[in-house]
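Protein Entry — a single chain follows
Next Lines — sequence and tokenised fold
***
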Amino acid sequence: MAVVIIGESLNATIPAICEAVKNHDKAWIQKVAMEQVEADADYLDLNAQVTGCDEMIDLPWMVETVREVTDVPLVLDSSNPPAIIHTLESFDWEGQVPIISSITNEGNSPDKLLPVAAKYNTGIVALLMDDDGINHTAEGRFKICQELVKKSRDAGVADHNLWIDPLILPIGTDDNVGTISFELLQMMKSEFPEIRTYCGLSNVSFGMPHRALLNRTYVAMLAANGMEGFMINPRGKEMRAMMYAIRALMGEDQQCGKYIQAHRDGVLLTPMSDDMKKKLEEKAAKEEERARKKAEREARRAAKAVE
């Protein structure tokens, strides 16, 4: 299945978005939405959870605001099921079916939204955790996946509408975090070939230096192991370039047309890091100094020859 980019930048945990939601600043929300769409986001994640505000008002407002400028499908992201249900009931979703996020296998969590996903034929994100928290083995998380798939099917949700988030953990806490995800993806796709897979990426690099490097590298590795959905900031130039390359290499870009166009548009040119700029400047200064000293030596030799 094709790689899917979910734009993460309309989330009220981001201070600027929090203020925009509080003030119902349509212009700012629409600006960020269109920047992500122009960076080829396939979905836009919307989170309107702001302390002291009414999400029952703010999430529908956010949906309406974004839909005024784009028809890109949305992810309704909330830990408050009534807000998701109210938002689903407030709009005609024909031709723009959203994904709702999210459930876990904790307590009665699946019971709150699985029937809603079945009723509206939406996608739904399921996080692989249960009452014991996050299992730290591929086998343990796969067991949770099996239980969630069964509950999803029993509720009438089609496998292709179930997006499983295997939960990416920081590699700084466990050397095996990266490979566990690969094992788990293979197990899930083998037993449940129609389910979708989805992840928030930035956790993997938490607490590490050069986080962007780890994130970009892990995206490519996850895609090669079957991950479909990536919650990222598509406006980041280096990550955007990586996504064009991944889609081309995975046969999802006919005749590499989008990759070539991105090259022509200058999208594939990544900005130079401050460290690299400093190193190049130091190298240029040393070369200039060597050239100056060489010129001085040659001038002295020439002067002696005249004498």
In short: The radius of gyration is 25 Å. Residues 274-306 form the longest helix (33 residues). The chain has a mean pLDDT of 93.
